[in-house]
């Protein structure tokens, strides 16, 4: 079952249809636990030490609750990596996300254990326990390991294949509040199509601007900068 446009192009996989929504709802209500309705686990085709795909659950996760530690690592070494990540974040903040990414991938099994707790931890607790998960780079990396899907690649593909359709649809809604203003600022040759599409969707569904765009708080940024400068000064003084 597919959602097909007037020109015959497939604009969706059918998950927006009423039938699929009802089916998904029934499956969700009938499942016994978060690990239910798993497909048979695939045999690993690669050698030891490679993080392989696990069973695929109903919602596309392939490494929901991994049980095997990374090759050459123990619970102790992973805990040490976690402590190192905390030190890196306290010293460098989000600027250390690139260096932290390999360690975050190594400690993925610890992150899943923490996130899968019942009851689930709050967002504040998650950020406190795994601060780099609130960085875009490490969050995307975690999602890639969890689902075997790259968010960035999927978003780019969607914008490339469906973006023009969304813009064309909205051009017929010129009287819709805010739509005309967004389209007036869009130039096909120089404007960012992705940003235009996001603004059109936000306007169409009447979402507030801060739902997808975050504006930094100047006082918070200044306070963080002062803290980093003080820490740097103390480190230089100690050395």
Automatic annotation (TrEMBL):
Per the UniProt record, the lineage of the source organism begins with: Eukaryota, Metazoa, Chordata, Craniata, Vertebrata
Q: What is this protein called?
A: Uncharacterized protein
Outline the segment boundaries, as ranges, of region: Disordered: 31-53
Q: Which domain of life is it from?
A: Eukaryota
